[in-house]
Design brief:
- It is a multi-pass membrane protein.
- This is MFS transporter.
- It is found in: Cell membrane.
- The longest helix is centred in the first third of the chain and has 29 residues, at about 50-80.
- This protein starts with 16 loop residues before the first helix and ends with a helix.
- It has helices at about 15-35, 40-45, 50-80, 80-100, 105-135, 135-165, 170-190, 205-210, 210-240, 245-275, 280-300, 305-330, 335-365, 370-385, 400-414.
- It is globular.
- It is mainly alpha-helical and about 425 residues long.
Length: about 425
């Protein structure tokens, strides 16, 4: 066989209203990832915080998101997807509002952790909901989900920059307002499940990681996400010495990053996976991302060079996000909520490591060191995919018979 195939639908835009309601809320939820990017220097300056303390706004958010992800499938299969989504959105509204009212960086770090809990409940359940309700097959649903992700990540820095130019509190209040709108949209448009889902065991996501294919993809995503969040969270501090520290300037730079991510996730990723297996796409694009991060390290004293690396990085990240998510949804016969929870939990924990580690490396070594380390981490992700490619046949759209699977497992164990 040649490449993986993508199910053809009349149009990805022809979706039930409930899918659009969840997708809209996804856009707002993913805004929260890049929202604080343009205001990091302002928060550090106004609240007398160090870069490492400020980067903890990412870490507290991502650590709690990652840990909570392991338990979202257990909760959603007991109370239903709609209630889980609404609880997640409500938590984001409350904690975003509290973050905007905070008087010190420690409080914001704590409230971002609560925000991360709401984010975990929402994101993991939203992916499974869109895949289950969207027309056009799994691949079309994932492209729609990744488009929402890319759009949210693109708009987040822009909103953060525009509102942050008035006050660093503005983006938090803006997110709380938009999430309240998303809450209302899901209440009105998303119907309660007609059939109650089968409850999953609390240990199901942890057991799922023992599945060879899912374990390989989760491990690769952990190292890949380190590169992702070094580029997103550390670059604003790398741009400060070059005179690019205003919220509005950083907002536009990372708007370009997020927009390029959205474009490639929707249009370029499907184009590539129609022409080659998904694992080959990953094994090709991950080293390109590593090279981009090394280029950022070499261009550490050039504002044009760093901005170009940020935009190119966004293009590569868009492809990788979509293809990795497709692989996770197709690589096993596990329930999608379980696979999504397990994979996302590991992935976000990888992202949590990166921001404070990057600033500590910059202080201990050189400002370029975090980019070199991120490039090395992404290469590890590529190596994991290459070594484990035989276990990922199903992710490529290829079905292996029991004998071939047994041989692959035996080879891996020997």
């Amino acid at each position: 066989m040649s490449a993986s195939t993508v199910a053809k639908a009349p149009s990805i835009l022809h979706q039930p209203r409930a899918v659009w309601a969840v997708a809209f809320a996804c856009v707002i939820a993913f805004m929260g990832i890049g929202l604080v990017d343009p205001i990091l220097p302002a928060i550090a300056n106004d609240l007398q915080a160090t870069p490492t303390e400020t980067e903890m706004l990412f870490t507290s958010y991502l650590v709690i998101t990652g840990i909570a992800m392991f338990f979202t499938s257990w909760l959603s299969t007991r109370i239903g997807a709609k209630r889980t989504l609404l609880i997640g959105l409500a938590l984001i509204v409350v904690f975003a509002l509290l973050a905007g009212l905070s008087q010190d960086v420690e409080s914001i770090i704590g409230f971002r952790a609560g925000w991360g809990l709401g984010n975990a409940l929402f994101i993991s359940t939203a992916l499974a909901t869109i895949v289950g309700a969207a027309s056009g097959g799994t691949s079309s649903a994932i492209i729609l989900y990744e488009a929402a992700l890319g759009l949210g990540i693109a708009i987040g820095p822009l909103v953060g920059g525009v509102l942050g130019s008035i006050s660093w509190r503005g983006p938090f209040f803006g997110t709380a307002t938009l999430m309240a709108v998303g809450f209302i949209a899901i209440v009105v448009l998303l119907k309660k499940e007609a059939v109650k889902p089968t409850p999953t065991r609390l240990s199901a996501p942890f057991r799922a990681l023992a599945n060879p294919a899912l374990g390989i993809l989760a491990a690769a995503a952990l190292f890949y996400n380190i590169g992702f969040f070094v580029l997103l969270a550390y670059t604003p501090f790398a741009l400060i010495p070059l005179g690019l520290s205003s919220a509005i300037t950083l907002g536009f730079i990372f708007f370009g990053w997020g927009l390029s991510l959205a474009v490639t996730s929707v249009w370029v990723a499907p184009l590539l996976t129609r022409r080659m297996p998904r694992t080959r796409v990953l094994a090709t694009v991950l080293p390109l991302l590593a090279l981009d991060l090394v280029a950022a390290a070499l261009a550490i004293d050039s504002e044009v060079g760093l901005i170009v690396c940020v935009i190119v990085g966004g293009m590569l990240l868009g492809i990788l996000n979509t293809v990795l998510t497709e692989c996770v949804m197709e690589a096993t016969d596990l329930p999608r909520t379980v696979a999504s929870s397990a994979y996302s939990g590991v992935r976000f924990l990888g992202g949590a490591i990166a921001p404070p580690a990057a600033t500590l490396l910059a202080v201990a070594l050189t400002p370029a060191a975090p980019f070199y380390a991120a490039g090395a981490s992404v290469l590890v992700a590529a190596l994991i995919i290459v070594i484990g490619r035989k276990r990922l046949s199903r992710a490529n759209g290829f079905e292996v018979d029991e004998l071939e699977e047994a041989e692959a497992i035996s080879a891996g164990d020997s």
